[in-house]
Amino acid sequence: MSVITYREAIRHALAEELERDSNVVVMGEEVAQFNGAYKVTEGLLAKFGPKRIVDTPISEAGFIGMGLGASMLGVRPVMELMFWSFYSVAFDQILNNAANVRYMSGGQINCPIVIRGPANGGTNVGATHSHTPENVLANHPGIKVVVPSTPADAKGLLKSAIRDNDPVMFLENTLLYGEKGEVPEGDIVIPLGKADIKREGTDLTIVTYGRSVLHSLAAAAILEKEHDISVEIVDLRTIRPLDIDTVLKSVAKTHRVLIVEEQKPFASVGSQLAFMIQKEAFDELDGPIHRLATIDAPAIYSPPVEVEQLPNPARVLKAALAAVA
Amino acid sequence: MSKKTTATDEKKDAARVSPAAKAPVNAKLTKEERIELYRKMVRIRRFEERSLRAYQAKKIGGFLHLYIGQEAVAVGACSLMGKHDHVITAYRDHGHAIAVGMDTKPLMAELYGKVTGCSKGKGGSMHYFDPSRNYWGGHGIVGGQIPLGVGLAYGVKYLGQKGAAMAFMGDGAVNQGAVHEAYNLAALWNLPAIFVIENNRYSMGTSQERSSAGPGLAQRAEAYGMAWDVCNGHDVYEVRATMDKALNRARDEFKPSVVEIDTYRYRGHSVADPDKTYRDKAEIEEYQRTKDPITLFQKTLLDEGVLNEALVELIDTEARAEADVAADFSEASPYPTVEDIQKDVYWEIDNPAQRASQGRLFFE
Using a CB-CB distance cutoff of 8 angstroms, which residues of chain B are in contact with residue A75? Predict the structure, then answer.
């Protein structure tokens, strides 16, 4: 076990998979010579050379589509989006082509591609750079969606994503890149679609993922200490496939649910969760399902106010108290 | 215009001889290979005509973009394919499918939405695929397939194979951003891609003059330092001669190029296009009379002594019969079931023994 950052954990996963499979290629803007816009790919060019670590022009529709075409022939591209927000200019390639080629070919073609990069607000970069499209992506059958919250999860899930034969969208977080955590040595592989209980509790289930896990953990500590409320935190880790069984098991234990997500509320991941929980665990609920989401507006720039637009420990605390009231 | 003098007839005969006939790639063709080129063009036309009748009889849903008039392009280009050469195209994709050797029964059945279709009834007219023949679709969004085509070229090069990817598009696609991004990548990285513009003069109902700036479509290649060429797509020999150069440039030198092939579609953009607003009937008739690729090649092969009237008749009869057989096969085939809707979405779901992930992949 070693303590490394989320950034390093992703880098280790990339390096190990590049080592393991000669068909894995890392591509994206500034991933090679510049060492990565967020230094995730630092050192990979030196180690693996320009055939495996490829700088692309600023041309998302072009290079994502190109990676997809190569994946049809058995290359396994791991494409970096400098920000997931830039997916909008490659939307047709990702959500018309990657999502649909297998289906429209009657199952004849696989697209083993990974598209990864940060998807988060909270960095004062305004509305164009702060999208969290996991709900949009997960709305497309054929696509898998992963949002890891810890270094260990990031490493283990990315390795699974790269080995997966379906297109996997891997959503990281610039505010997590520097977060440290324990990561087991060696080839750790965490299966997609397996939620993780990040904290056990008995009074309230918080269902969350990504950076909101950290906020929820901070709030849970205060809830326990100051309010004597025991919170269980279910980290989904993967949005599609979705480990709803772990969620339902927790709901059966606590009977109260709060969903915390860095998502605009309309038709969000939480919307889907709430539907499934009420449908499949209606009798277990002692109250309505609550949700804390991003305040419903484009991402505001103003630094102190952006903190309040997103989930944060204080907002989670308040929402949790309302959920158990 | 006099039709009586011998001199004029000789001149017309001379004009009928394709200047590309002597190109090495054509000169080396055996008699059987020449007949096969002709037969494929006829088979495409009869297939398309039969599918139109099926559409009019309401056997086929959605859109139907017919390839009639453009047959020499797909047949000529695809006849040059080697083991590691690939094809991808847009939604007017039936001709390429037959050209690469797909059986017409599953092609027709796909139009009928039957489970025996080439995509099990899940793709429809615009989405034919056959990776076993290096045919990667069949794509519905104008220009969206072109980056994928560059990816095929990238894959060929990455995997150390000697081959090329032909990415077909219409003249309307050249104004899509994704196409230019693809041009840039192919030229920047010396990828063995050939961008084939099938210029049938109309992007849906908008003529080239009304949609595309600049002196020519293929010339845009110059901006990316790519070679380009223009050729007569009514002449299958010329298509082969031009594409052969581009293919060899790609395979041997990893140099991409843009090839614009002049062609013409006799039918509307799709069968839903009444074809009354943007061109004259006289224009269509002029093309049919003077530039029909099948008629022209038939004359060429008759002149060469490769074809005779009896064989022309036989090939046509067989092609019509084949299209009818395909329609009968489609008619008799079952539809996919409601259970089939959720198959072929995820590799993992279709290969449960090898599934590594957990959790739900489908929702209600």
Answer: 154-155, 158-159
Alpha-carbon gap, residue B7 to B14, rounded angstroms:
10
The CA distances from residue B71 to A160, B40, B200, B347, in Å, are: 45, 8, 12, 35
Do B144 and A107 lie within an 8 Å CB cutoff? no
| Secondary structure tally for chain B: helices H, strands E | 14, 8
Q: Give the tens place of pLDDT for each residue, A202-231.
A: 999 999 999 999 999 999 999 999 999 999
In angstroms, what separates the C-alpha of B352 from chain A's closest C-alpha?
Answer: 12
pLDDT of residue A324: 97
ipTM over 0.85: yes
Residue type, A74: G
List, as ranges, residues 240-259 from A with C-beta within 8 Å of B: 240-245
Q: Which residue numbers in chain A have pLDDT < 50?
A: none
Share the mean pLDDT of chain A.
98
Interface of A with B in 158-187 (CB under 8 A): 160, 163-166
Known catalytic residues of A are 129
DSSP assignments along B217-280, one per residue: SGGGGGGGT-EEEEEETT-HHHHHHHHHHHHHHHHHH---EEEEEE---SS-SSTT----SSS-
pLDDT at residue B300, as a whole number: 97
Q: How far is B130 from chain A (nearest CA, A)?
A: 7
**In 10 A of CB B177, how many CB atoms?**
13
What's the pLDDT score for residue A286? 98
List own/partner pairs for B81-84 with CB under 8 A and 24 or more apart. B81/B134, B82/B162, B82/B163, B82/B251, B83/B163, B84/B134, B84/B156, B84/B161, B84/B162, B84/B163, B84/B164
- Chain B contact present for A144, CB below 8 A: yes
Residues of chain B with confidence (pLDDT) below 70: 1-16
- Would you state the pLDDT for residue B16? 62
For the record, the structure tokens of B121 come out as 């009834």
> What is this structure's pTM?
0.95
